[in-house]
Design a protein that fits this description.
globular, 37% helix, 21 strands, 20% strand, alpha/beta
């Protein structure tokens, strides 16, 4: 089994390449765009938009309009049926599924160049973490990357959906080394429900005393696994054959909260989302694991990667040598990465090696500083997620800013949901535990802040919308998760600050 030092050696070239890109971000981005255009000039999309004749960013922006999934969908569907070289000149190796914010699952094509682009961010993240916290890689590792309970399948053209191996994102050589120490149970692939998957995950972790790193997306998923571990401890402990160890585990689970230090004495690091609506559950996770370093994730979507955690700074860095990035401001202006302003908010647009060009991700970020001219980005919401009870069309970024103007704790502890019952109004969903500071005055102040949206103000003024009300629930994230579509991906489900309106 490779030592942490040996594992670090495998990430060192990618880490050095990322650090070189940090030193020359504008040149790196210019070269990335040139390479993507050159390599895909013979695709149908490239021929239609004259990639071979484009000499730089200005030409590219003039020739290719901003797009989204719908603008690429027909070509993606044809590719899934086996038609080659539509969006990329390179063969499509597989598809990954993304749930999106509406509709059913969507397919995203993956080429070898796109996989390499992901690795150029994932490997520097791992390498940086290894050099700063080598003990995180001294024991057993637990990764959740792809969906829970996903069955292997193929497109009508015979192209695989999913890689079949979560560690493929790390590259073949590192994946082979990590496989030896990565926890896995076949039952995790066979589980047909979230409850069954959580039980088997809890069983897997219960049998891992040398656990040193957990990497998941949503902290709520890990909290659910820990809850299952404590609530179903009798059935889980029955799987432990060694009686003295079973007794020790039983004592660790006997209190109001589990003794996580006794369960996993070597656990060094947990990597998970810590921003936006994940901030509060991440804080709960930190309280459960006070001895553990909690590292926030970067911004990664199925379509591409935007940022990665790097260094001790709380905000992740733009993955400057992965894809070509543009950023849309509220006024409609489009900026390149080197043109961003501190504290400003933007919507992320990516051009990837998988055939997505000027693709509007809908992810909104705020610039929270720079490192060698490369922006550190805080995810603040989705521009495409909005609520419309009676024509007001509130979007998530606006709601977040309104909450922050009233109390910085609001976007970390509360969610907003419109409802038509008994009269149309918005509910500020809050957990019972926050009753000490959250009251009617705070709710009224948020209602006033929402009046900055002219349609909301008009609907309130004419009585079409009634005042904002507090609505207490035991667990706001459990409430939000219950609203998600069954086919949405369990492992990577994001909780929106602005929930879909309740209509019945």
């Amino acid at each position: 089994m490779a030592t942490p030092a040996a594992l670090y050696t495998l990430t060192a070239p990618a880490l050095a390449a990322f650090q070189a890109a940090l030193a020359a971000p504008q040149a790196t981005q210019t070269q990335l765009l040139h390479t993507i255009l050159q390599h895909n000039a013979h695709s149908q999309f490239g021929r239609r938009h004259g990639f071979a004749k484009l000499s730089g960013y200005a030409d590219f922006a003039a020739a290719v309009p901003l797009g989204n999934y719908a603008s690429h969908q027909h070509a993606i569907e044809q590719t899934a049926h086996g038609v080659p070289q539509l969006l990329s000149s390179e063969p499509v190796l597989m598809f990954e599924e993304t749930g999106g914010s509406s509709g059913g699952a969507k397919l995203v094509p993956y080429t070898a160049a796109l996989q390499a682009a992901f690795a150029r961010a994932v490997l520097p993240w791992l390498g940086d973490l290894m050099r700063r916290r080598p003990q995180a890689f001294a024991g057993q590792l637990f990764f959740i990357i792809s969906p829970a309970s996903r069955n292997a399948s193929h497109t009508p053209g015979g192209i695989p959906i999913g890689s079949g191996n979560d560690l493929a994102y790390f590259g073949h050589e590192l994946a082979a080394e990590l496989t030896e120490r990565t926890l896995f149970l076949p039952e995790l692939l066979q589980a047909q429900s979230a409850a069954a998957w959580q039980w088997h995950s809890a069983r897997l972790l219960l049998h891992a005393p040398a656990l040193s790193l957990m990497s998941v997306w949503s902290p709520t998923l890990l909290l659910a696994i820990i809850h299952t571990l404590q609530q179903q401890q009798d059935s889980l402990l029955a799987t432990v054959a060694d009686r003295p160890r079973r007794a020790r585990l039983s004592r660790a689970l006997s209190g109001h909260s589990p003794d996580t230090r006794a369960l996993w004495s070597q656990l060094d690091t947990i990597s998970c989302w810590c921003s936006h609506t994940a901030a509060a559950p991440a804080a709960q996770l930190q309280a459960l694991f006070p001895q553990v370093y909690l590292q926030g994730k970067g911004l990664l979507a199925t379509e591409g990667i935007t940022s990665l955690p790097f260094g001790e700074h709380p905000y992740p860095l733009l993955a400057v040598n992965s894809h070509f990035y543009e950023f849309a401001a509220d006024n409609g202006e489009i900026y390149q990465a080197h043109e961003l302003a501190a504290d400003a908010q933007y919507r992320v647009i990516i051009t990837t090696q998988g055939g997505l060009y000027r693709y509007d991700t809908g992810d909104c970020v705020q610039v929270c500083g720079f490192e060698q001219g490369v922006p550190r980005l805080n995810f603040i919401g989705r521009s495409g997620w909005y609520s419309d009870v009676c024509g007001e069309k509130l979007n998530e970024a606006f709601v977040r800013n309104a909450m922050l103007s009233v109390d910085p704790r609001l976007p970390e502890h509360c969610l907003l949901q419109g409802t038509a019952m008994p009269q149309p109004h918005y509910r500020l969903l809050a957990a019972d535990a926050d009753a000490a500071w959250l009251n009617a005055d705070v709710c009224a102040a948020l209602d006033t802040a929402l009046h900055a949206n002219p349609q909301y103000a008009h609907a309130r003024r004419i009585g079409q919308l009634h005042p904002l009300r507090l609505h207490w629930v035991a667990d706001i994230h459990a409430h939000a998760a219950a609203l998600a579509r069954p086919e949405q991906r369990l492992a990577t489900r994001k909780i929106a600050l602005l929930l879909p309106p309740q209509t019945a």
